[in-house]
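Q: what does this look like with zinc ion bound?
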Amino acid sequence: MQKKKYLKKGKSHGQKINLVSGKSAKKTCALCKAQLHGVPHGAKTSATKKLSKTQKRPSAIFGGILCNKCRSMIAEETAKILSGKESLDLRAKPYVEIMLKSV
Ligand SMILES: [Zn+2]
């Protein structure tokens, strides 16, 4: 949840300055920076906070963190480790460790 705040000048000669809360940005994958699906964006940050847990992110593992391609890549790396081969991608290592705990 990224929160942006910006100043908005009043209509009459800029006398009034109102603090307006920004809109929530589009969420991206932690590994490949692809745009994530199933996460709220565009609405005000106060509105997205009021949503329920399952409305904020998909219930799949790494939902709201990784995209589909990266999630399946992590699953493959986890399977490699379980079968005895070593993982090569160092960026995937922290996510593989999380998935090993859940398996
Ligand atoms: Zn990705």
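The mean pLDDT is 83. The beta strands are 5-9, 17-21.
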